[in-house]
Design brief:
The protein is mostly beta strands. It is built from 1 helix and 12 strands.
Length: 186
């Protein structure tokens, strides 16, 4: 009788542990594993959604910078981030679980992809204030000439552009349909 009770307790504990990690780390990929300095690379982080639970995760870009994110009903995955690297070298880009905004860690082992950055890419023409937003979107405030940060605004609910802008340096793409905004920010 004791053995059955112990087995039932172990089974229940296992089920509860499985429920705690209902979403697990999926894959992390790069649009290219070899790029030139200043050339954009798109990093895609996936979470395997097993049920309606939610979790937090972090992407490490291999250069000492990170992007915290969550997976839940209002924040669909995958997380897609376009990055550029300022120096040649090898960058170990990681996807790991992290407690973010009261979302528990996504379960599973850390995932990674290596990106090799070589040479020097052609310098892109500096963006002009009118060039960063796609019509009917308009620049909200000013383009930060030093960092390249900007926000485009339109009436709430306006369809986002089909092609997302490339954010330079440590900037990350963001969008907020409810507020009618998208752009690149630190």
């Amino acid at each position: 009788m004791t053995t059955r009770m112990q087995y039932a307790a172990l089974l229940a504990a296992g089920l509860l542990a499985g429920a705690a990690h209902a979403q697990v780390l999926g894959t992390i990929t790069a649009s290219s594993t070899t790029v030139k300095v200043g050339e954009p690379v798109t990093i895609t982080a996936n979470i395997d959604v097993l049920n309606s639970n939610y979790c937090g995760f972090v992407v490490g870009f291999g250069d000492g910078t990170f992007k915290d994110a969550v997976s839940d009903v209002s924040t669909p995955v995958p997380l897609v981030v376009t990055r550029t690297y300022d120096k040649p070298g090898s960058y170990h880009v990681t996807l790991g679980g992290k407690n973010v905004q009261n979302h528990p860690n996504c379960g599973g082992p850390e995932r990674a992809v290596d990106i090799t950055v070589t040479g020097v890419a052609k310098a892109a023409a500096p963006a002009k204030p009118g060039d960063v937003c796609v019509k009917p979107w308009k620049l909200s405030g000013k383009l930060n000439a030093k960092t390249g940060a900007f926000t485009c605004a339109a009436k709430a609910g306006t369809a986002l552009p089909a092609e997302k802008p490339t954010c330079k340096g440590d900037l990350s793409y963001f969008e907020n349909v409810k507020k009618g905004q998208y752009g690149c920010k630190p």
